[in-house]
Amino acid sequence: MSINQDTLFHDTTNQFCKYDKKLGTYTFILRAGKGTVSKALICMNEVELLMQYKKTKGGFDYFQTTLVLKNEPCRYHFKILNGGKVKFYNFFGTKDYLQEEGEFEITPGFITPDWAKGAVMYQIMVDRFCNGDTTNDVVDNEYAYIGRGVEAVKDWSENPATDGTRQFYGGDLQGVMDKMEYLRKLGVEVIYFNPIFVSPSNHKYDIQDYDYVDPHFGKIVKDGGTPIGQQESTNANADKYKIRTGSLENLEASNELFIKLVEKAHENNIKIIIDGVFNHCGSFNKWMDKEELYRDNANYAPGAYESKDSPYHSYFKFTDENDNNSYEGWWGFDTLPKLNYEGSEKLCKYILDIGKKWVSPPYNVDGWRLDVAADLSHSSEFNHKFWKKFRKVVKEANPNAIILAEHYGDAHSWLLGDEWDTIMNYDAFMDPVTWFLTGVDKHSDNAKPEVRGDADAFNNVMLYQMSRMQSESLLVAMNELSNHDHSRFLTRTNRMVGRIATSGSEAAGINTDEAIFKQGVVMQMTLPGAPTIYYGDEAGVCGWTDPDNRRTYPWGRENLELIEFYREAICIHKQNQVLKTGSYLPLLWEKDLLCYGRFDEEDAILTVVNTSDEPKTITPPVYMLGSEDGTVWERLIETNREFYNCGRIKSMQQGDVIEVTVKPNSSVIYRKLNK
């Protein structure tokens, strides 16, 4: 019998790569078609090791070997023999020759938090989620931001302006606490907050003080002073803002409120991840103080903008020591002073202490999301050294904390077990899913209609991008359909190119397609990674890319049917552990149709997506998921053009396959029922 290439399977999940922490061993398991392999060898570090036949189960033989490995990244492939035939097998499949790329890879001892594997996350931009305390709201002209006074938006449902960074809607941490029950009932397991530290913008990616929660999100117990004049463009007279953000009473009260929020979240079995913006700070920052906010405050040392003798002068890189405006800005923005890690050990220590502080008591945050993490310093070498130190201090303080980085492009070198745990999964989720379902990019800036429904392209991209992450990273990767940097996925379903400045905000909600949207949610809940909902997606919020994607949550105007659909989809994800930690296997694909499975030693889930306007009947080879003839498969959910259906329908496997009919522009999820 010849080698059945389709039946060969291995990945680095715990199903096929079992780690015994107590013994420090790894057991590698290779699956092959019954009777099709006479010998299997694992090839590692230029050494070939014979694997032992372990068992036959169903239509498969299993080979395994147990090894003790050094604590360094380990790459390997398999050599398969049957009679005189030899094949080589790695992440990219089976070949007659040894491939240069696609080696399996693990780092011994690299383990990401179990709670994060497949966890349902929920991203909140605090200002736009819920206003629970009106006493902390920003007031009109409280201060100037980028040369103009800030604005308190009076109508919660008003869409953001084209230049919306000065607009504040009043959302705060009390609002999140007030909606904790809603999040729990939705099925949320983790809240990821966009930055919450003291910052002048509504997005808060220009940090003013890393040690404290912004009182506009927290508590203002000491108030006073007056706003600036309508025509003022500087903050020398921003007395109200100085009191609100510089008074220790407000800062400490805000931190105390955050402690209570974390406690309440934990009581509801919800973890908390916060945003670490460490590449740059803001010109408002107490270390720079370009805005003259801290000069008359005895609690603060002079900023680097004020004096060359500032204790923070080394925190920034000045090209001309006699010109306080000559500091380096991130991407050239003078409002975003780039932090000078290579030039300041003191700064490095401070940020490392911040990393430790917020994951430690009394705050007890469960992890960090790191903004533009690969751009931290001026050299890749220094970046790697710093993130190794960051990981060490964070994990020592809270071994179960997750370190999740924003990164575009190949993150392989950062995901070897000694720096980041994982990434925001643009390359192996958001990008391929968006192109496959909509034919536009994640910004709604570029349309390629021919790419929609291209299952070959989807599988090829997924295969390559998944190969660049170890399973420990892939299973906790943040799988978002939308976020604060890209257009809302519901808007992308209209398959239009546009932005708020060119198309207007109303166009973002025209011709949106909930059928496509629901397909995206189905894929989000069934592909490897942690499905992450951007606040309001579940309620039908539209929006072009930044700033239109930052509309408020529509309390009282929600799409209730869509929320219920999310609850059902989340419930399926949470009730089936195989969707959190199981192996991933594409089963069948053609133009406009994608079929894949998730499986482990006991369970299996089948997902089918049809992007065409015609029904399709297919016979996916579910035996590849470990299922045998006569097994009953149960449909858990169906989405289609008209509605979604949670009615349970059973189908019996006949031989190697089951028959599945998928309606136009629909998706289905089936579960294997164990005997």
Polypeptide structure, described:
The protein has 675 residues and is an alpha+beta fold. Among the domains are: 5-109, Immunoglobulins (Immunoglobulin-like, Sandwich), CATH 2.60.40.10; 575-673, Golgi alpha-mannosidase II (Immunoglobulin-like), CATH 2.60.40. An 8-stranded parallel sheet has the order 22-21-20-19-16-11-24-23. Strands 25, 26, 27, 29, 30, 31 and 33 form a 7-stranded antiparallel sheet that branches. Strands 3, 4, 7, 8, 9 and 10 form a 6-stranded antiparallel sheet that branches. The chain is globular, with a radius of gyration of 26 Å.
Major sheet summary line: 8 strands, parallel
Overall mean pLDDT score? 96
CATH topology of the domain at 5-109: Immunoglobulin-like
CA-to-CA gap between the ends?
31 Å
Q: Strand order across the biggest sheet?
A: 22-21-20-19-16-11-24-23
CATH class of the domain at 5-109: Mainly Beta
- Give the strand tally: 33
Residues in helices, as a percent range: 10-25%
